[in-house]
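Q: I'm writing up a methods section and want to include an example of the input and output format. Could you take the sequence below and give the corresponding predicted structure tokens, formatted cleanly so I can copy it straight into the document?
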Amino acid sequence: MTAVETHALSKHFREVAAVDGVDLRLAEGRIHGLLGRNGAGKTTLMKLLTAQVFATSGRMRVLGENPVENPRVLARTCFIQESQKYPDGFRPRDVLSIAEGLYPSWDRDLARDLVGEFRLPEKRAISKLSRGQLSAVGIILGLASRAPLTFFDEPYLGLDAVARRLFFDRLLADFAEHPRTVVLSTHHIDEVSNLLEHVVLLDEGRVAIDEEAEVLQSAAIEISGRADEVRESVADADVLHLQEIGALATATVHADPGRADRARAAGLQVAPVTLQNYIVHRTNTAARSAARS
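A: Here is the clean output for your methods example:
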């Protein structure tokens, strides 16, 4: 089944195409990564799918229906934004109390456990919370809602390493017991790479990558050694990045069949490329190509 489907979906703000002709299918019951640089269109796309902004053109289906002015869809969708706003005077306990009435699958016990684990001062005014504590409020909402479709937009800004690990562990554990569709947008790709099953990379409002995470994990390799030998080894390769320091060089190339074996046979070092580095190199390659055109 498909949780999200779009066809030629676009959103323009005057002269800026924030989302530009996006065709996308996100399968149900999976954790999807929505990646890209600042301004790539990630938040705008999520706002379109949760009916917070209206499309300029194109079509979309969310949980099988058009989400615009559709309470059936919106009650089954949770969107946790980086810049989540709450009414003046609200406390975390007020936010969680209201959320319990909004989400049919809300789990009160899970919410209470998470408040304790994140050490959230639930009686303190929202305006008095730290950046990390505000992020914890959003994470608790997103997890305890148990919404069939949950969007997390940079969910853990300000959280320390212990709290981030807690979020990852809790997300995986609850996802295993209560499968649903999760769309996770973040710049900290290495930290979430083991969570993601499918990756969408947006670049200037367009889909640059739409692929299984497992495929991307092995999509490229790094070849290192003497600069002249590295250049010779990758002369016929699809080079994503080449760095030379003195007499040494490291090239990041797509891992076409036999490439690693030939490099090792030539006495060069070969290493895998992390998902984060692959995404960075793909984005930079696209930027360089655009600049030349």
